[in-house]
Design a protein that fits this description.
It contains 3 helices and 8 strands; from the N terminus they run H-H-E-E-E-E-E-E-H-E-E. By secondary structure, the chain is an alpha+beta fold. Strand 1 and strand 2 form a beta hairpin.
C-alpha cells in the first residue's frame, strides 16, 4: 500500500519540480538587476478616416536592456496630442523581446475624433508648429508571474513632416 501512495505522489512532485525550475528565468524580474524596457511610439499610420470613425495603426518599438529575454503579454495605452485624447485601449498581443535587443509590434486603433475636431483642425492649421504628444502605457510582462511596467513618454512632432502631398 505504501508503494502505491509513493507512485501517486510522484507525478505531483515532478510537476512541482518542473514549475520550480521555470522560475529561475523569472528571477531577474524580482531582483534589483532588472532594467525597465524602453517603449517608443515610432509611427502613427492612418488607415482611413471617415467623419465618425478613424482607423490608425500604432507602431511600437520595445527595447530590452536585460540579459534575459523579455516576454510581453500585452499593453494598455493612451496617446494624447496637446492634452487631447487621440487613442486609448489595450492589446493582448504576445511577443518575446530577445535579450539586449528590440522588437516591433503594431496595434490597430479605432477612434472617433469628432468631438475634438475643432482642436485637431487648429493643431493642423500651422503644420510648422510643433504638437506636444504624450504616451502613457502599461506594459504587461512575464509568463508565470506578471509584472506591469509603467511607461510615460513626451515629445514634440511637427505635422508638416508627416503630411504627404
Amino acid at each position: 500500500m505504501r508503494y502505491l501512495a509513493t507512485i501517486q505522489k510522484t507525478p505531483a512532485l515532478l510537476v512541482f519540480l518542473a514549475a520550480l525550475s521555470t522560475l529561475s528565468g523569472c528571477s531577474t524580474w524580482f531582483s534589483s538587476g532588472f532594467k525597465k524596457p524602453d517603449v517608443q511610439l515610432i509611427d502613427v499610420e492612418l488607415v482611413h478616416a471617415k467623419l465618425l470613425e478613424q482607423q490608425f495603426i500604432l507602431h511600437f518599438r520595445v527595447d530590452n536592456p536585460n540579459s534575459q529575454s523579455l516576454p510581453v503579454r500585452g499593453i494598455s495605452y493612451r496617446v494624447l496630442l496637446n492634452d487631447t485624447p487621440l487613442a486609448s485601449g489595450s492589446n493582448n498581443q504576445w511577443l518575446t523581446v530577445p535579450a539586449n535587443s528590440h522588437a516591433y509590434f503594431k496595434i490597430p486603433v479605432h477612434t472617433n475624433l469628432w468631438r475634438h475636431m475643432k482642436v485637431v483642425v487648429r493643431m493642423l492649421e500651422k503644420p510648422d508648429q510643433p504638437i506636444h504628444y504624450a504616451l502613457h502605457a502599461d506594459l504587461k510582462t512575464g509568463l508565470l508571474f506578471s509584472k506591469k511596467i509603467n511607461i510615460l513618454r513626451h515629445g514634440d512632432i511637427i505635422p508638416g513632416d508627416y503630411i504627404r502631398e
